[in-house]
Design brief:
Strand order of the largest sheet: 5-8-12-11
Number of helices: 14
Number of strands: 12
Helix content: 40-55%
Radius of gyration: 21 Å
Length: 318
């Protein structure tokens, strides 16, 4: 789908994956990308680049559509961040076209359009971390999970950041043509390995910031004391709060429990050590507060869908 102000990479990313699919599997030449818009007039993207539609929404509304890809668009929110844009006319077309599509997938903040069209009600969904709170606030019937890079719920898929659209597209390829083909396409994209859907889309330092000084101080305390005890009672004592107040503060400010945040912070530092040092897993586990290698491995499986050894093998540098 195309509409005024759409993010350019949302539009061009998935077609690149499908173009490489045709190179790897000539018999998949039936996989054809069609750009649809309300009219055949050029569409100006957020990057200022004009894109020419192939067909109009009316022409494809009769179906069938194999895969409907819905990109997104954002605008400044006046507070240094962005807000997802959901034009009512575009939302209406999303609903009509999804009704005749075998499956529907949103790219990045395109999830807001799916939600506005009622396609995500009662479903778990993801979007770019910068607009996840907006999605949850505006659509309480959607179970928003800002962590995974993509989520599949039946015939509806949602993707996270702009580059995660490549992972989502590869997952669509894998569903239709098998994992081996998807891996060959990933190599063409210089993606060493397709990332699992549950892999986190962002690391702790780039999470949405807190809005209170007390929360900032708590986050700094966690970072400075990763190797020590960071239980809820310990954090509550450091912040001079009751355990109940502490838990409420983390939920309100960051949308996670204290334990979840601490584990994320420890995994992040462990990732950095695995990428840049030759430390043994024992040393990494101790330095990051996991205590044992088994605890480190379980945390990596939960957060990244891989093991510390596999992660180091892929991302070790220096």
């Amino acid at each position: 789908m195309l509409f005024e102000g759409v993010d350019l990479l949302d539009v061009t990313g998935p077609p690149e994956v499908f173009a490489l699919l045709r190179r790897e599997r000539p018999e998949a030449s039936g996989c054809r990308v069609v750009l649809a818009a309300e009219s055949l007039d050029p569409v100006r993207t957020a990057a200022g680049v004009r894109v020419l539609p192939d067909v109009t929404y009316d022409e494809v509304a009769g179906g069938p559509i194999d895969t409907l890809l819905v990109p997104g668009s954002v605008e400044p929110d006046g507070a240094g961040g962005v807000r997802a844009v959901t034009d009512p006319r575009t939302v209406g077309w999303v609903g009509k076209l999804a009704a005749v599509a075998r499956r529907t997938a949103s790219v990045c903040v395109g999830a807001h359009l799916l939600a506005a069209a009622g396609l995500l009600d009662g479903k778990r969904a993801t979007t770019h971390w910068s607009t996840a709170r907006q999605l949850a606030a505006e659509h309480p019937a959607v179970r928003v999970d800002a962590d995974p890079i993509f989520i599949r719920e039946g015939r509806v898929w949602t993707g996270a950041g702009i580059t995660a659209c490549l992972d989502l597209s590869l997952a669509l390829v894998a569903e239709d043509f098998g994992e081996a083909t998807a891996l060959r396409v990933a190599r063409q994209l210089v993606m060493y390995l397709k990332r699992p859907s549950g892999q986190s889309q962002f690391s702790v330092p780039t999470e949405p910031g807190s809005t209170t000084r007390r929360m900032d101080e708590l986050r700094a305390y966690v970072t400075q004391n990763l190797a020590g005890r960071l239980t809820v009672p310990d954090l509550a004592a450091a912040a001079h709060l009751s355990e109940r107040q502490l838990t409420r503060l983390f939920k309100t400010e960051l949308g996670v429990t204290p334990a979840s945040y601490v584990e994320s912070a420890r995994v992040e530092v462990a990732r950095q050590r695995l990428e840049s040092t030759d430390d043994t897993l024992d040393r990494v586990a101790t330095a990051c507060g996991f205590g044992t290698v088994d605890t480190l491995i379980r945390a990596f499986r939960r957060r990244l869908g891989t093991t510390p050894t596999e992660y180091r093998g892929r991302f070790r540098h220096g």
